[in-house]
Amino acid sequence: MTQTHIFQAEEIVAGYDNKMVIQEVSLVIPSNKISVIIGANACGKSTLLKTLSRLTKPVSGNITLDGKLISKIPSKQLARVVGLLPQSPIVPEGISVADLVGRGRFPHQSLLSGWTKKDYEAVAEAMRIMNITELANHNIDELSGGQRQRVWIAMALAQQTDILFLDEPTTFLDITYQVEILDLLTDLNRKHGTTIVMVLHDINLSARYADYIFALRQGKLIVEGEPLKVITSTLVKDIFGLDCMVIKDPVSGSPFAIPKGRYHVNNEKAP
Amino acid sequence: MKNESVGFIRAGRRQRRRRWIFVTGSLAALSFILCCAMLLLGNTIYPVMDVIRALSGEQVQGASFAVNTIRLPRMLAGLFAGFAFGIAGNTFQTMLRNPLANPNVIGITSGSSVAAVFCIVILHTSGAVVSIASVIAGLATVILIYVLSRGKSFSIGRLILIGIGIQAMLDALVSYLLLIGAEQDLPAAFRWLTGSLNGSQMDELPPLVLSVFIFAPIIIVLGKHLSILELGEQSATSLGVNTDKTRVLLIFSSVCMISIATATTGPIAFVAFLSGPIAKRLVGAGFSNVIPAGLVGANLVLAADLIGQFAFVARYPVGIITGILGAPYLIFLLIRMNRKGEL
């Protein structure tokens, strides 16, 4: 089991140039749980995740890990506790899957050493969790999109951090792979206690897989809590500006939002 | 099950490492052979024993002068400059993830050339002054390209295009300085236009050798960081690399090495551009490319110089031969990148 950490943000403001995308957001990440940040396009959810995972410096406000400012923690040391899967990672040409996953071991290695026994075990474990062991010696260029995404997550897993941020890990994947990736991440959380924080596009998959929801609108955190409590038709209207009906997902029991468009609505005529 | 998958991964990695060791070893052996050839071949071919005796300081009629004053400095200049060009070019290409983004194409070697030509041909200075001036000019060129290509966000394409423009401008400046300074001196002109080992002298070498001994180890040690930077800014940051500091250190080391090499041999065409991609082809992508790229650079320069000296009726400077190799590759690369939509 991984350690419990207190990761929190206090009144952070972040953005680019003169446009502040994140406005005074304060939050505490629930330890050892899966949290999902939801919101409409351009509401700042990606920026929030980038700020939390130190890719973007906040203009003001503090982000702390176990009471210490993350900007004050040596970067390699922080990288042993907090990992990130960026939205569009860059693939070096011609690299094998195992070597790429092994790059996740960087924060655990010294300058000149090769792979230690621990490194091999961490890489093997990460690849086993992501079901890609048999691809180990394949070239990454040969893989499909879904396989590649599993390789990237395996790289983040090889880093063996207690907290893992993922920026839209299911984008560009078929629904089958989306569910597969989310199941694998849930395995990771249930078996190892890894704290997971991710941005997802699909509100229903968010409601199903999240233990905790952070809902963002125009850079402000408007609601947070368990999906059952917070995902309502009012909230969906609030954050997406979409009329919908929220029912109980017959498979999982989680909230399920059904959008109401202008057409195809029973007993109603289009305007 | 657990040990099985560890063993599977270990076996694959061992195989890739064996390939790395084999290729790197072969490249080093080839460098050694080429170095020997540089010492043995010339207008007069002396017996091997005479060459060895001359090298060890004995006075051998004829051989001593030819070997110690002409061939040895020529060989050392080629070896060290090639190594410097290879490592520095590869560092830029890997860091910026684009083979076009290298000192030969974006004008850094031209910047150093301008300073070196100005010092040597116009001011008639030599030694440390030339090295320092060309390092400053190389760094200034990097800063100029960076400042000019900085827009709302960083773009590699813009950086390369601006670099090519700056390169054209600086090359014109080199030609102009040669025109007013070395009107009658064709060898000097060749040296600064395409790079040449002709007329390398022992007393010019210490800055080059010293810079390689100082900066190459820094880049070799940072090889692991370099392979993480290759994953992009975001992954590198989250893996705990201090990206700004690492990049500055890598660029500074590369520019110092390549500027001093340029001040010594001239901008030997395309060596910095070719070495990284050739080395990567040979060793694969899993292990550090730094040392193989340096060795490929040294081999390219030495082999091209031997070809230039002996393959034709006339003698050509090394840069003409590497230019003949490099230009088609540049065109091939542009076509391929254009097809892939990377330009």
N-to-C span of chain B:
46 Å
What is the radius of gyration of chain A? Answer: 20 Å
Please give the CATH class of the largest domain in chain A. Alpha Beta
Number of helices of chain A: 9
Oligomer: heterodimer
List low-confidence stretches of chain A: none
Mean pLDDT of chain A: 90
Structural class of chain B: mainly alpha
Structural class estimated from helices and strands of chain A: alpha/beta
Q: Can you tell me the CATH topology of chain B?
A: ABC transporter involved in vitamin B12 uptake, BtuC
Q: Which blocks of ≥5 consecutive residues of chain B have pLDDT under 50? A: none
Total beta strand runs of chain A: 12
How is this structure best described in words?
The complex is a heterodimer of chains A (271) and B (343). By secondary structure, chain A is an alpha/beta fold. Chain A has 2 domains: 1-81 and 161-230, P-loop containing nucleotide triphosphate hydrolases (Rossmann fold, 3-Layer(aba) Sandwich), CATH 3.40.50.300; 93-160, no CATH class. Helices cover 30% and strands 26% of the residues of chain A. Chain A has 9 helices and 12 strands. Chain A has helices at 45-52, 75-78, 97-102, 117-129, 145-158, 175-192, 203-209, 227-230, 233-240; strands spanning 7-16, 19-29, 34-39, 60-65, 68-69, 82-85, 163-167, 195-199, 212-217, 220-225, 244-248, 255-259. In chain A, the strands form 3 sheets. In chain A, strands 6-7-8-3-9-10 form a 6-stranded mixed sheet, sandwiched between helices. The longest helix of chain A has 18 residues, at 175-192. The relative contact order of chain A is 0.16. By secondary structure, chain B is mainly α. Chain B has a single domain (76-340), classed as Orthogonal Bundle (ABC transporter involved in vitamin B12 uptake, BtuC), CATH 1.10.3470.10. Chain B contains 14 helices and no strands. Chain B has helices at residues 2-40, 48-55, 63-95, 108-122, 128-149, 156-181, 186-194, 205-221, 223-229, 233-238, 243-265, 271-283, 290-310, 318-340. In chain B, helix 3 (63-95) runs antiparallel to helix 11 and helix 4 (108-122) crosses helix 11 (243-265). The longest helix of chain B has 39 residues, at 2-40. The N and C termini of chain B lie far apart (46 Å). Classes of the chains: A alpha/beta (271), B mainly alpha (343). Chain A binds chain B through residues 50, 53-55, 75-80, 82-84, 86, 89-90, 92-96, 98-99, 102-104, 106-107, 109, 111-112, 115, 120-121, 123-125, 127-128, 133, 136-137, 159, 165, and chain B through 2, 5-6, 8-10, 12-13, 15-16, 97, 221, 224, 227-228, 230-235, 237-242, 280, 284-286.
